[in-house]
Amino acid sequence: MLNLLVTNATLPDGRTGMSIAVQDGLIAEVTEGLDAPAHEKLDAEGLLLAPHFVDPHFHMDATLSYGLPRVNESGTLLEGIALWGELKPLLTADALIERALAYCDWAVAKGLLAIRTHVDTSDASLLAVDALLEVKRQVAPYIDLQLVAFPQDGVLRSQGGVENLTRALDKGVDVVGGIPHFERTMADGAASVKLLCELAAERGKLVDMHCDESDDPLSRHIETLAFEAQRLGLQGRVTGSHCTSMHSMDNYYVSKLLPLIAQSGVAVIANPLINITLQGRHDTYPKRRGMTRVPELVAAGVNVAFGHDCVMDPWYGMGSGDMLEVAHMGLHVAQMTSQAGIRQCFEAVTTNAARVMHLERYGIEPGCDASFVLLQARDPVEAIRLRATRLKVFRKGQLLAETPAATAALHLPGRAPSSSWMIPKA
Length: 426
Ligand SMILES: [Zn+2]
Fold this sequence. Notes:
- By secondary structure, the chain is α/β, with parallel strands linked by helices.
- The protein contains 13 helices and 18 strands.
- The protein has an 8-stranded parallel β-sheet with strand order 6-7-8-9-10-11-12-13. Strands 3-2-1-4 form a 4-stranded mixed β-sheet, with no helix packed on it. A 4-stranded antiparallel β-sheet has the order 5-14-15-16, with no helix packed on it.
- Helix 2 packs parallel to helix 3 (127-139), helix 5 runs parallel beside helix 6 and helix 6 (221-231) packs parallel to helix 7.
- Bound molecules: zinc ion.
């Protein structure tokens, strides 16, 4: 007998009336109209069953600290970094762990079951690293947490930067990070990319660098990152995060850059909520959008994912762990309003993000983990439009979270009471 049988589900690829059979935490079968004995049966009633959401770019050491010790008044990246510097000496491991665990609860409720978080390695105590390694251990039964050693103050710019980052890797941090545009000079930025990629190659680690997070069209560290990925044989293992300067770059230069990124197998992560608020702050009017060139990267064959980046921290006071909100903002900023474009935005917070993190057994296919979300929507387009309710969240066949369907009870003059959840009749 099966552990779980989901029937009458719509899948993100458009297949309808699908049954998903679950045995021992894995998807045993995906077939149209299958009925079989199961301990638990769930009728999806034609709604969308999608693999769980994935956030490939987050900062869990700072999350839910909004207002500590004060609020970012200018709203700029640089005031955020300065504010984080003021907060760091006040951090305690216990408070950091408590905030991170609270965020992970929000994430599960939103069907977000895999998160790649950067963790600041600039401080010699590595307090945040130890705290997030503890969080990773505690949430392992319900969230795949991947840690990136992130030298927020610049690996070359700050004293002991390389040593602290290396120690974080020794402690078990999974991915090598960097921040070349924050180093003192362009040359130092390029040197940091080379050094960090070599370190990753030596240790067999993945790479994910904050890269060119500015409006400066001459910030071109993504070029060095792509070159180093190729030189060191790291194709498919390297990610450039943000890459906002590409928005402002010269078009001819970008026409040469895109094929280099594609050939080097470097993935790109845009963080639409954060990019749209932090960038363009030195502009009067017109104000630049400050997000990287998503449709052009996708067209060039680059794997593009979207991250949340921040929730209620020194850089951003909004957010709730909802990757559909991220996709929603992404499609607006990138003007990806075609049906295909909207679906690409859904993939940017699911399958593409899972590829960035090298997640295994991800998807709605036989042999994959039975880790999926039933949404109150009939397809990915509707899911993004409504930031649809996550009716049920499963991980490895186990029910982790349920939310009642969103329905408004209407009491309209001259009409019988009715209800609406804002989807047109099929
Ligand atoms: Zn970031």
